[in-house]
Amino acid sequence: MCKILVVDDEEAVRSAVRRRLERDGYSVVTAESQAEGIAAITAARPPFDIVVTDMVMESPTSGLEMLQAALSTDVFTEVIVLTAYGNVANAVECMKRGAFDYVEKNIPGVDVFELLSLKVEQALERRRMSLATLRRIDQYSKNRETQA
Amino acid sequence: MDGHFACNYSADSTPSMTDYTNTCGPDADPTLFARVSRTVVTGESIDDVLQSILEEAVRACLAARGFIAIVDHDRGELDVRYTAGDQWTEEKRLARLKVSEETGRGITSHVAATSRPYVAPDVAKDPYYVLFFDDVRSEIAVPLVDGFKRTRGVMNIESVELDAFHQRELCVLEGLANLATAAMTIFDHRAREAALVQIGKELSSLSGTGAILQKVIDVAAEALKFEDCSLFLLNEVTGKLVLRASRGPLNRQIGQAAYEPGEGLTGWTAKHGQAVRVVDPRSDPRWRGLFEELPASDVGAFMAVPIHSRRGVIGVVRVQRKKSAYKWFPNDFTEGDERILSTIAAQLGIALDNARLVDQLVKAERMAAWGEMSARSAHMIGNRVFAIKGDVNELEHLMRSGEIRPSDALELCESIKHGIFLLEEILNEFREFVKATHLEIEDVDVNELIREAVAESFPKRSRTNLRMRLTAGLPLIKADPKKLKRCFSELLENSINFQPEGGRISIATSFADERSRRWLRPGQRSGGYIKVRFSDTGPGIEIENKPKIFNPFYTSRAKGMGLGLSIVKGIVEAHKGIIFESGVPGKGARFTILLPYEEQHEKS
Questions:
Q1: What mean pLDDT value characterizes chain B?
Q2: Measured between beta carbons, which residues in chain A are less than 8 angstroms from residue B397?
Q3: Chain B residues with beta carbon closer than 8 angstroms to that of A106
Q4: How many domains does chain A contain in total?
Q5: Measured between alpha carbons, how far is B28 from B160 in angstroms, rounded to an integer?
Q6: B464 with B487, same domain?
Q7: pLDDT, mean of residues B535-548
Q8: Are residue B37 and residue B178 in the same domain, yes or no?
Q9: Which of A107, B139, B245, B363 is most buried, by the most CB atoms less than 10 A from its CB?
Q10: Touching check for B419 and chain A: CB below 8 Å?
Q11: What is the dihedral of CA B275, B277, B278, B282, to 10 degrees?
């Protein structure tokens, strides 16, 4: 079963996201701060498949730091950044550095939970493909070694 | 002593004048002038000095009595103010003499009108003499003429002997009269200096309200003898010069009377940034006579000076004098008057600039707070809405799946309601933050307000000790009682929340001491402040957090938006007070509020 970490400093946000993702059948762990989130990522065995993190918590760059922690543990962990509506500068920066996507929390008229559910599904798909590619490369390398 | 006090008097053709050949006699008291000049220098008041000069004059002339009458420039009358010698009655002391050059109107009046000394060797034959005392046989009167050639008064000396006054007496009296005039000038200057200092003080506490401007105008008018004085300030929007303070009948038109730029003498002053000083202003082509303190026909002299500021001319101070009924009393404004008025105008300009800067600073801070507030509240509202949307999403999902249990649906509804409640709470704080600066002012007893706040906010059965030391007899302040009580309650609740068991909270009121006044910003009014202090034995505030505690959204609690202390600060600042925190971290917090009170204005 897929493991997802949800990091946000607002309890109401954490529990709403957790409930929606659990409905999709994922195993969800929550953390209420950047520090707690990083500790969870470092401790996870196997690593989280997906990390959904708020952009702004203790600092405006909390999301970036979560991303770094996730990628340095498992480069194929997919990170989705939650941002305040209309505040995407930092989220775009996250994507340049390897985040899967960002989701604005308050897009008028959009059911953001369905959007998030979709993004998580797509992120998982990419992670699966990445891991498959990695396995193929591994396999290829092993084959070459045996041939040699 | 011969020739030392040279007489520049020359006998004129007045019929009763005897041609004196004597010069100042050798029998003059050699120490007289040294003594009198000393009195002029050291005298406590002008009354002491003039009284003493008069007595010396009577003695030196071996005369029976004498008096000094002072010119009242407004009425054109002479007011017998100082008397010496015998037979003075209350009635005679109260005499007021009309100034007149004509014969038969009295020697004093004649001297005042001509500004020349006059000797009557035999009053019975004198054309000007009027009977005042039965026993007078001869009389001498000298004018007190100041540096502007203005007659300030007349010194009159009488003898019961015929022909008692000659060149010697004339010389002595003219010398004494000059000293008397010098003394009057000195005391005038002292009064002006004191008035300027007082105006400076008033202005340093300029709070931007009309009250202080009016006070400055009052002090200027009273102490500097500008009978009618008005202040016009430029309205930046309309570009008109609007009356902001005045003395006299124009007072009723404050805020209404207005000149277009360049209109009338007042407008001309503002437009050209130059002072105007004219006699008989009605003959000046610039004169419009729109808003006057006096009936137009009464205005004798007009003077207006511009108020310069960093933004150019921002207003005009002007003074007017009544037309004198007597041509011997030049009633125009002097260069000295213009210098004084310009000094006041310069001080006003600086003070108004200053007040404006302080105002801008406060506004800028508030704007910055607003900016942060918008960003933060968007974030907080966003999160709440996000959570509500999550509940709705779940509710919808359950209903579509058809397997919804009423208890689950109700739980989601509760959660949605709670989310909406939190949104409303944010709105409420928002509203209070906005309203913090809109005050409904009344006279408020700070101690009473604290007692009410404690009764409402301090839990009856608390493990926290509350100690109150409220100083009795503090003056009432102009304040919004509801808002101020909210401040006190907020500080009290803050302290209660952070108290360990058995902690102590103290609330004290007093007059502000020098130590706490050091927190006042430059430009805040320098008058009296009341100090309200909340201290507790809680954890206090860490040094690094001290600069942030009054910022909106600073909070160490989960509840609300953290606007509490920023609202308190907003309310205190709207009352033109300050709030600061000076506790020792680890030992407790100590919040101090200084609130200004109106001082009963004492005239010195």
A1: 82
A2: 23
A3: 382, 385-386
A4: 1
A5: 21
A6: yes
A7: 83
A8: yes
A9: B139
A10: yes
A11: 50
Across the interface, of B378, B390, B419, the residue whose CB is closest to A19 is B390
- Contact of B378 with chain A, judged by CB distance below 8 Å, is answered with yes
Q: Where are the beta strands (DSSP E) in B15-64?
A: none
- Interface touch A84/B382, C-beta < 8 Å: yes
Domain holding B96, by residue range, is 32-191
Angle at B182 (CA atoms; ends B179, B188), nearest 5 degrees: 145
Which residue among A15, A20, A106 sits closest to B382, beta carbon to beta carbon? A106
Do the Cβ atoms of B579 and B569 come closer than 8 Å?
Answer: yes
Residues B282 and B225 in one domain: yes
- B379 CB neighbours in chain A (<8 A) are 56, 84
Within an 8 Å CB–CB cutoff, is residue B397 touching chain A? yes
Residue from the list A56, A112, A114 with its beta carbon closest to the beta carbon of B386: A112
**Helices and strands in chain B, H and E counts:** 13, 19
Query: Of the ranges B198-202, B397-401, B489-493, which one carries the lowest mean pLDDT score?
Result: B198-202
How much is the pLDDT for B8? 39
In a shared domain, residues B111 and B215: no
Find the CATH number of the domain harbouring A14: 3.40.50.2300
Q: What confidence score (pLDDT) does residue B435 get?
A: 74
Same domain, B452 and B514: yes
CATH number, domain of B507, equals 3.30.565.10
- Here the CATH number for the domain that contains residue B257 is 3.30.450.40
pLDDT by residue (tens digit) across B197-256? 877 777 766 555 566 777 778 877 776 677 778 889 888 888 888 998 888 778 788 888
How far apart (Å, rounded) are the C-alpha atoms in residues B86 and B367?
76
A17 touches chain B (CB under 8 A): yes
Check if B383 contacts A (Cβ < 8 Å): yes
Q: What local confidence, expressed as pLDDT, does residue A8 receive?
A: 94
Per the structure, the complete domain to which residue A118 belongs is given by 3-147
Q: Are residues B235 and B306 in the same domain?
A: yes
Helix (H) or strand (E) holding B431: helix B406-435
pLDDT digits (tens, 9 = 90+) for B118-144: 999 999 999 888 888 889 999 999 999
Length of chain B: 604
- The answer to whether B124 contacts chain A (CB < 8 Å) is no
Q: Do B393 and A114 touch (CB under 8 A)?
A: yes
